[in-house]
Design a protein that fits this description.
Layout (H helix, E strand, L loop, with lengths): L3 H30 L3 H4 L1 H20 L5 H20 L4 H28 L6 H30 L1 H22 L11 H5 L5 H21 L2 H9 L6 H25 L1 H22 L3 H16 L2 H11 L4 H28 L6 H37 L12
Amino acid sequence: MPLALLALAIGAFGIGTTEFVIMGVLPEVAGEFGVSIPTAGRLVSGYALGVVFGAPLLTVLGTKVSRKKMLMFLMGLFVLGNALSACAPTFGAMLAGRVIASLAHGAFFGIGSVVAADLVAPQKKASAISLMFTGLTVANIVGVPLGTYVGQAAGWRVTFTAVAALGIAGFLGVAKLVPELGRPESGTIRSEFAAFRNVQVWIAMAMTVLGFGGVFAAITYITPMTTEVAGYSAGAVTWLLVLFGAGMFLGNLVGGRFADRALMPMLFTALGALSLALLLFTATAQHKVLAALTVTLIGALGFATVPPLQKWVLDHASAAPTLASAANIGAFNLGNALSAWLGGVVISAGLGYTAPSWVGALLAGSALLLSFLAAFLDRRTRRSGRVVAASTPAEQLPAPVRH
């Protein structure tokens, strides 16, 4: 695989670390600024909303420059946001830093997916995309636990300073290793939006919202679920999140490899198994060992859907893939926000800490139904294309080019 994928993975590692590490140092941040934990939680929701809106906005603004220059700009924005967070004098400044950093998130993964796919042969596109996302999954195994430890031991400002340094490494890696691939082929904002005329792009984004939403419906409430139901100590939750990250890492690699061979069967399998795992989590959450195994499995199955879904969007928006790809990244965060809210609703209704897993199973099951619809529409489109080609008289076909 090209070394440019390493540069993209480094950027993804930094982005993944800053997205999730805030959860580990939230009490320290709240204490320093003198705000409540729920108020400090706006640093999480503000980041998610920044991704949703920043992904299409910055991708559209970047249609006039090369993808390499846009990736460098996004990493610069990421460094600026985390540096502001590291030295923020007030909570409002900290929130502004989080939002600035989040604006780079969706566009980086969206444009990065297109670049990664362009760097390899057609039969290896999903694997290339998964290698870039490996940086995000490794962040959950290494970056987030390490950043949390550093934040608790040396202060959360040191954590965000280190994350900004990761962004500088990502910037230099993109500058040195990613080739100049030219501007996006479409070249205009209108042609980028034209990709959304394809219903398959919308179905893919809906699958992303529901499928990944299913994962985070349960994982958002992993602390009360595992401490109050399974009997884990609060300190053990960090290691459960490491297991979740390890599952994400493995699922991402497997999803990329098998999506190159059989994309839709891979998606059917991952979404079906994810629905089942989330359903079982309501029972396995009662036992420590089974709960740990299920958390790992949910991480693996959830991220096994990422490469095939991202490739499905690229395939069906091939004429103008950049905006559609970035919008699909925004859909991941929309799914996170939606599922976290739904999970909170069922807990507040008195249904217990395992209730979000039921919600997650329903969301993932809905994504599975949509995948069947997507496959049906794709087969029908291909069949119609073959029928049209077969019924076209020979004299209407273009004359062969003579050399």
